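User: For my dataset I need records formatted as: sequence, then structure tokens, nothing else. Please produce one.
Assistant:
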Amino acid sequence: MLRISEAILEIVNGNATLQFGLRYRLFNLSQLSAFLRPQIKARTKKEVKIGAVTMHLSRMQRKFLKWMPTQEAYAIENITAHSNLCTINGTIALFCLKFYEKYTEIPGLIHFLVQHFMMQNINIIEISSSLSIPCSVDGRPRRI
């Protein structure tokens, strides 16, 4: 049987809106607990008190603040913008963000950036990423 904390974690991990709201402390946790209680009850197959859900959400919210990157935690090496690529239904632009290799180790960085674009009312249609590895003449990866 699933524990309450595991059920809450599953629900929050499956919902970007809940993650965003917890990260920026946008929710009244008591109201959110009452809203999530039926889902948690169905997953755990046992009675769930709103106070217990609120307590777990509060703990989770504190953890979100610790592991989510802050703006100071990364630096963009280069931004390239190409605008007015198409004007059939609206202006389409292409943004290329280049990060230093050390930022590939930060969990949630892309999600963090997408949230910031969303808050600026920017729609993202497609995201792709690539990693360049320098090679020596014989094709083997070079040590950096």
